[in-house]
Amino acid sequence: MAAVDDVLTELESLGSEQTRKTYRRHGVGDNQFGVSYSALGKLKKRIKTDHELALGLWDSGNHDARLLASMIADPEKSDPTLLDTWAHGVDNYTLSDAVSGYASSTLLAKDTAERWIESDHEFVAAMGWGILATIATKDGKLPDSYFRQLLSRIERDIANGQNRERYSMNTALIAIGVRNDALESEALAVAARIGTVVVDHGDTSCKTPDAAAYIAKTKEHRARKR
Fold first, then answer.
1. Which of 5, 128, 140, 221 is the most interior residue, by most CB within 10 Å?
2. How confident is the model over 110-134, as a mean pLDDT?
3. Global pTM?
4. 130 pLDDT exceeds 80?
5. How far apart are CA 72 and CA 36, in angstroms?
């Protein structure tokens, strides 16, 4: 196992002010080195899976270290306490995407998502919906009824959701809409009733996808691949 201090030193050497500026625009605080995703990906490829290292990197509190931790942590060694601890340590949406991705890869994904969407914490709730979006696209065993009740909840709650929660609910709406033809028609109807989903992306060029347009685009892309 690589030593935590050695990896932190390497991360620091890989950082740049330009990347730090970019991360700041996305809500990342000062405890960061500014390591690009490309460099993090190379580290992940080299380290592969190292759960103990991941735990140590997370405990450092450094943003880049926490991103890498979510990439190299072992899904099979996860548990609800670890996931909840990591979730409540998230304070920006780039890290929330990373933690959501890790949680989605565990056997606890569905139960975790159902717990997290009940949270009053913006990023925890957003991560819950992010996991559900992944489940909608990758878990073929769940019945349509499971996703119909999620569509009902999205329609009911999205307008009053917190900023990043709204974004993730919209993502889940899209994912449900591309799951199959039956759910597509229902998701499109929900999207029409909801209307435009407004999300504040801060000082970035990020945009919130229009659910109906994105569902149609995805369907066309899949048809071309057949």
1. 128
2. 98
3. 0.95
4. yes
5. 16
